[in-house]
Amino acid sequence: MSSTGATIDFRSVRKTYGKFVALESFSMHVKRGEFMTLLGASGSGKTTALNALAGFTEIDSGEILIDGVPITRLPTEKRDIGMVFQSYSLFPHRNVIRNISFPLEMRGVPRAEARRRSEKALQMVRLDALANRMPHELSGGQKQRVAFARAVVFEPRVLLMDEPLGALDLKLRETLQLEIKDYQRQIGCTVIYVTHDQGEALTLSDRLAVMDKGQVLQIGPPEELYDKPQSRFVAEFVGANNILKVEGAEPGSVMLEGLGRVSGHVAHLIAASFASIRPELIQIRREASGAHRATLAEAVFFGNSVRYVLRAADGKEISAIEPRRPGQDVLPLGTPISFDLDVADLVALKG
Ligand SMILES: Nc1ncnc2c1ncn2[C@@H]1O[C@H](COP(=O)(O)OP(=O)(O)OP(=O)(O)O)[C@@H](O)[C@H]1O
Ligand SMILES: [Mg+2]
C-alpha cells in the first residue's frame, strides 16, 4: 500500500459558532508525507481544524488547499482524506474485513480487488487472523488497528487522526504510537494527528503545532519546541519546565525569580518577561558550593531518576531531575543544598 502524500495549507482560516471564535487566523503549511501533530488543550480548536479540512465543517473565511488546490467548496468524499477518530466508529454489523473494505465498496472498486486490498491492509496491522470477527469481539487496540486499516485502504493522500489512542491504556498507547509511525512510513501519506498529550506529540511528529484559542502559537520539529519555546504557554505545555519571572534587568545582569541576580551571558534575557529552564538542566550540589542556595521540598523516586523540588532563597520552587545510579539514596526532605545551572540554558520567553 502506498500513496504520494499531498501538501496541505490552511490560510487565515476563521470559524465561529455563533459569537464563539473556534479558529482565528489559523494558518499552517504541511509538507508532502509529513507527520504533523496539532497539540493543544481541550477546546483549543484541534478537531475544528480537522473537520474543516475533511469537509465536516464549513469555515467562515480563509482558504484550505490540498496540493495547492482550494478545496473548501469540494464535498467531503472528493477530498481524498482518510480519518481515524477516538471512538472506534466501526460498523457493528460488519465483520473486520467488511469494515475495512467499506471505503472501497463506496468507491465502486470491484469485489475481488476490494477483498485483496482489504486483506493487505489487514496484514499491515497484523490482524489477518481476525478477518471474520465482529467489532464487539475485538479489544480496544484491535479495534483501533481496524479503524486505521479502514482509513488507509483506499490509499488516501491525507490521513487525519483525532486522538486515535485516547481511549487506550498507557502501555497500549505507547505500542500503537510506534506502529502508527511505522505504518505511515510505509504508506507515505501526509498525516495530521491531533492529541492533547504532549509526550505523544513529541514521540510521533516530524513537526508539531501548539494551539491555543484557535490559533497556532508555535510550529516546528519536536526538538525545537522543546529546546526553544517562544512563549510561556509553549514552555509550560511541552514537557516539564521551570518558569522564572524576570524581575529586573540592567546591562550585564538580570534579576530572576528563584535565582536572584544572574550575570554573564544574559543579553538574550534582558527584554524577556519570563525565562524557562528544564529540570534536567539544574545540577543539584550536595554541599553549599553551588551558586544558588535552596532546601529540598519534595523528592519523587522514578527508578532511573529522582525529581526534586528545591525551595530557593526567595521561596520559589524549582524542579530538578537527577539521573540516578543503583544504590544512590534519595536525599531527605529539608536537606540544605545548593544548585547550579548554565545561564546559556535559560530560554527567553514572551509573556
Ligand atoms: N458545534 C459546535 N457549536 C458550538 N461550539 C462548538 C461546536 N463545536 C465546537 N465548539 C466549540 O469550539 C471550541 C473548539 O472545539 P474543538 O472541538 O475544536 O476543540 P478540541 O481542541 O478538539 O478539544 P478536545 O481536546 O476537547 O477535543 C470549543 O470551545 C467548543 O466548545
Ligand atoms: Mg477534539
Topology:
Blueprint: E1 8-17, E2 20-30, E3 35-40, H1 46-54, E4 61-66, E5 69-70, E6 81-84, H2 96-106, H3 111-124, H4 140-152, E7 158-162, H5 170-187, E8 190-195, H6 198-204, E9 207-212, E10 215-220, H7 222-227, H8 232-237, E11 242-250, E12 253-256, E13 260-263, E14 274-277, E15 283-285, E16 292-301, E17 305-312, E18 317-323, E19 336-340, E20 347-349
Parallel strand pairs: 3-8, 3-9, 6-7, 7-8
Antiparallel strand pairs: 1-2, 1-4, 4-5, 9-10, 11-12, 11-14, 12-13, 14-20, 15-19, 16-17, 16-19, 17-18
Characterise the protein shown here.
The chain is α+β, with helices and mostly antiparallel strands. It has two domains: 8-228, P-loop containing nucleotide triphosphate hydrolases (Rossmann fold); 240-349, Beta Barrel (OB fold (Dihydrolipoamide Acetyltransferase, E2P)), CATH 2.40.50. Helix content is 24%, strand content 34%. It is built from eight helices and 20 strands. The protein has helices at residues 46-54, 96-106, 111-124, 140-152, 170-187, 198-204, 222-227, 232-237, and strands at 8-17, 20-30, 35-40, 61-66, 69-70, 81-84, 158-162, 190-195, 207-212, 215-220, 242-250, 253-256, 260-263, 274-277, 283-285, 292-301, 305-312, 317-323, 336-340, 347-349. The chain has a six-stranded mixed β-sheet with strand order 6-7-8-3-9-10, sandwiched between helices. Strands 13-12-11-14-20 form a five-stranded antiparallel β-sheet. Strand 4 and strand 5 form a beta hairpin. The radius of gyration is 24 Å and the shape is elongated. It starts with 7 loop residues before the first strand and ends with a strand. The structure holds adenosine-5'-triphosphate and magnesium ion. Adenosine-5'-triphosphate (ATP) binds at residues 17, 20, 22, 40, 42-48, 196.
